[in-house]
Amino acid sequence: MLAYLRRVRETWMDYPHQPGEVIGGRYKVVRLLGIGSYGLTYLCIDSETGMSAALKQAKPSKRARAVKLLQREADILQQMSHRCIPRYIDWIELAKNKVYMVSEYIEGSTLEDLIFGQEQRFTEKECVLYTLELLGRVRYVHEQGFVHMDIRIPNVIQRAGELHLIDFGLALAIGEDPQEVFPGSMIQTRDPQRRDAAMYSDLYDIGHFMLFMLYSSYDPVPGQESAGWQEELDLHPETRLFLERLLQLGPRYEDSAAALQDLGRLSRVLQDEV
Ligand SMILES: Nc1ncnc2c1ncn2[C@@H]1O[C@H](COP(=O)(O)OP(=O)(O)OP(=O)(O)O)[C@@H](O)[C@H]1O
């Protein structure tokens, strides 16, 4: 019963702001974009500039922990300056555990929308080109001394033909101990290949990003049992090798610069083929 009452109370506490509400005297809520484990994100209009903005609220029921995590995210985002990473805009503190981070809103379609919503099919060449673009963004993050730790198709948005990387909520400084930052349960459920705050963790995620794109044009043969990607996908041998290294099935890349170089070469090989 106590657990039930706690859940009911959390639902009240985390009741989202409604469209039309103005936060911090400036940001008018258009709609709720999503509710994550530690935050609620809204699309807002900045009444001073008329521009749209993404406003992330620390989840009230998660109290100081959510505030601390949002502060970390804001600190990291402030250190990024790249046209394909949301620009940090503002920090609003209305009460002790009532805080918000404002960042640039990236209007477009996530790769998840493109693959599963719009059912777009990507060729191997396109997949390699998209991954090359994404890896360029990720390399920038690594050069700033951070790993993103959450590269997934819902966190990559295509806007005006360019891929943008969002959601730095799990980002860490390279070499930082994730256990000191996040609750143990958040770390233990991750694949061991992506647990450390190291570039290979992001590269492992990019391997899965590539698989999602490659499977968009895979048609299963009726009646055939499902198998692993190595059997199901008909790939250029170099694409296969590259994926194996990302997914740590072959010698893993320790540094994203080396992966970027190999992927650049692979894309040229594929372009020359036809
Ligand atoms: N800067 C942004 N521009 C556009 N959309 C954004 C931006 N930031 C977040 N979103 C969208 O808002 C929604 C919620 O994002 P958020 O990162 O808060 O939580 P989540 O990814 O759903 O949860 P979690 O990170 O806990 O798994 C997502 O659909 C995401 O695409």
TrEMBL record:
Presence of the UniProt keyword Cell inner membrane in the record: no
Leader sequence residues: none
Keyword list, A-Z: ATP-binding, Kinase, Nucleotide-binding, Serine/threonine-protein kinase, Transferase
Entry-linked InterPro entries: Kinase-like_dom_sf, Prot_kinase_dom, Protein_kinase_ATP_BS
Residues binding ATP, per UniProt: K56
Tree of life domain: Bacteria
CDD domains according to UniProt: PKc
Gene Ontology molecular function: any one: protein serine/threonine kinase activity
Residue span, Protein kinase domain: 27-274
A Pfam family this chain is assigned to: Pkinase
The protein's name: Serine/threonine protein kinase
Species this chain originates from: Paenibacillus terreus
